[in-house]
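Reproducibility note. Readers wishing to regenerate the assembly model reported in the main text can use the exact inputs given here. Chain order matters: entities are listed in the order in which they were concatenated for prediction.
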Amino acid sequence: MTNAYRIARRIGIDAGHRIRLHGSKCRNLHGHRYTIEAVCEAEHLAHDGEQAGMVLDFSFLKDEMMGEIDAPCDHGFIAEIADSECLAMFAPGGVSVENFIHALRESVEKDGFAATTKTTLGTKLYVIGAPPTAENLARHWFERLAPRIAERSEGRARLAKVVVWETPNCAAEWPAT
Ligand SMILES: Nc1nc2c(c(=O)[nH]1)N=C([C@H](O)[C@H](O)COP(=O)(O)OP(=O)(O)OP(=O)(O)O)CN2
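Running the prediction on these inputs yields the following structure tokens for the assembly.
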């Protein structure tokens, strides 16, 4: 086993979602206080400069988590692109539901997600390509954050995993370690 330093940082967001095909209560529109943890590791600490002695400055890690997760999702609604009944509720006046969902689908196919506030009531909407379970969100946010961590640490650190707690008792992580 290779020795490495590991750091972890958590943020919390509030967001709504539903699990479209769930057989029970999670089909309902509901919300969670999500806790998201990002774990980063490096074989070597920075030798000099403002990050000397660090894998990655905790504040840099927070900046990236806030940009990729908090800004588009906090106090928003996280939906699956296949959940057209749910997405239809967010279509703003003057735009057909078909066109609204088509534009979201194009973004999801191109970028892996769609984020918009051009919705009914200006509600923050974040759309991904899979059901918004803790497992899929952990993988999605891992894929969003990983390149940011590499860049912010000038290649020294890598994202090891993302853990998403949906409730204080239930968590999923990607990748399994
Ligand atoms: N493996 C998964 N199972 C479930 C997920 C998930 O993302 N991954 N999500 C849900 C629902 O979203 C639900 O809101 C959470 O389910 P549950 O644990 O049953 O909710 P509780 O309110 O009972 O949780 P407590 O921690 O006991 O308050 C369902 N399953």
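We highlight two features of this model. The domain at 5-174 is CATH 3.30.479.10 (Tetrahydropterin Synthase; Chain A). The longest helix spans residues 134-152.
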